[in-house]
Amino acid sequence: MSRPPVLAPLRGQNFRWYFLARTVNMVGSTMASVALAFAVLEVSDSPSALGTVLAAMSIPMVVFLLVGGVVADRFGRTLVIQTSNVVSGLCQLAIASLVLSGHAQVWQLVCLAAVIGTSSAMSFPALASVLPQLVPREQLQQANVLISMMRGTLTVIGPSVAGILVVTVGPGWALVVDGVTYLVAATLLLRVRIPAPVRRDEQPSMLVELREGWTVFRSTTWLWVVVLAFMALNAIHSGAIFTLGPVLAKQSDIGERGWGLILSAEAVGLLAMTLVMARVRLERPLLYGMVGIGALALPMIALGLHPQVVVVMAAMVLAGAGTEIFNLGWNLAMQEHIPDDLLTRAYSYDALGSFVAIPVGQLLFGPLGVLFGVQRVILVGGIVYAVITALALTSRSVRSLQRVSTTSAPVSR
Q1: Pick from 76, 80, 277, 283: CA 20 to 30 A from residue 51's CA?
Q2: How far apart are CA 314 and CA 310, in angstroms?
């Protein structure tokens, strides 16, 4: 059977509107990480302050992820995504107004970031699991590639534009754009029509539903092995790149604009790999995925050894390409091997395990950078990152997982 063309998912009305909503949302989100980081550093130049704000966003994500999986299964994935967009958009606009007015304080940013993190926790499992309801199963790789291609294209532009805005008019305006796009995306999602979740005769308690998701998680070896690895990998990445990276950029010749270019370079690699993945079927998704994600160690090592824009940009291109292989492989593994009625909850356990150590990295790497030196801590983080990815590949279940061939239709067109 021949593979469908890469644009085939766009023929379905539901996917078209969902794709447009995600595109609008990503326009702002690709600028938000750079803008928020330098907005905090404008209020306080302490690495610990930036780590605290980032942790305030990620801690609620960890706490409420499991609840988000159950809520999405009960009330519908698109409704949960819409509500989250509205809440996050209003909070981002509030942060922007504080920054633009010059009245922003770290504690205010911490509180608003916590609300955004809670909202994101509620929507993350729904976002991760909604595609099987929007496209036929044989189009899942193409649908995932289209989402990645859109994200990569915008991420090439967004951080660079954000860096320019930070230098010229300040970080607040980039945050305004992000807030508005959240609200527009929520409006576009009104056009997505999928059936509401089927109500059970006797609705089980939240605890029972969480237990069902846990059973799937613990009984799927490749799932818990990869998630266990990412408990450490995400902590290192968030601490070394997103907490200490902007600090090193300000301390070195990289600068704010150079840091924006570095983040855009990662998206170039991601986008280039999506073009490859649009034509190549990923037969062993986790084997190639874990090899690919190991490339994220390269920019950390480059920053630790030689913090120059061109060198780190080259490493980021490779990291972006590897990240795209992993993202696609992971989504295909989950969407093809986990039953749809349990997929949202499986994704919530995946996200919980993967994200639980991110606040640790964000809070720990700032003080470590002060104590041992920012550049040295980033270098050690890159080396440990590479070792952990290699250890995950010692699991046979990770190396041997194959794709599943299916032609089943989505729940609704």
Answers
A1: 80
A2: 6
Predicted TM-score of the model (pTM): 0.73
The whole-angstrom separation of Cα 149 and Cα 142 is 10
Give the Cα separation of 404 and 346 in Å (integer): 18
Residue given tokens 């967004």 in the structure block? 158
Q: Which one, of 127, 196, 110, 177, lies nearest residue 344 by Cα?
A: 127
Phi/psi at 170 (5° precision)? 100, 160
pLDDT greater at residue 231 or residue 28: 231
- Tell which residue, 154, 176, 175, has the closest CA to residue 40: 175
Integer angstrom CA distances of residue 218 from 221, 227, 350? 7, 11, 11
What local confidence, expressed as pLDDT, does residue 384 receive?
A: 96
Cα separation, 259 vs 375, whole angstroms = 15
Angle made by CA atoms 170, 257, 150, in degrees to the nearest 5: 90
Q: What CA–CA distance (Å, rounded) separates 350 from 68?
A: 12
In 10 A of CB 148, how many CB atoms?
Answer: 21
Between CA 175 and CA 161 the distance in angstroms is 12
Q: Could you give the CA distance from residue 259 to residue 46 in angstroms, rounded to a whole number?
A: 18
Mean pLDDT of the chain: 84
Q: Which amino acid is at 144?
A: N
Q: How far apart are CA 31 and CA 19, in angstroms?
A: 19
Q: Which domains does the chain have, with CATH numbers?
A: 8-196+206-400 (1.20.1250.20)
- Which bin fits 159, alpha (ψ -120 to 50), beta or left (φ > 0)? alpha
Q: What is the pLDDT of residue 405?
A: 65
Q: What is the largest CA-CA distance in the chain?
A: 64
Amino acid occupying residue 157: I
Query: Could you read off the pLDDT of 278-302 as tens digits, one per residue?
Result: 888 888 999 999 999 999 999 999 9
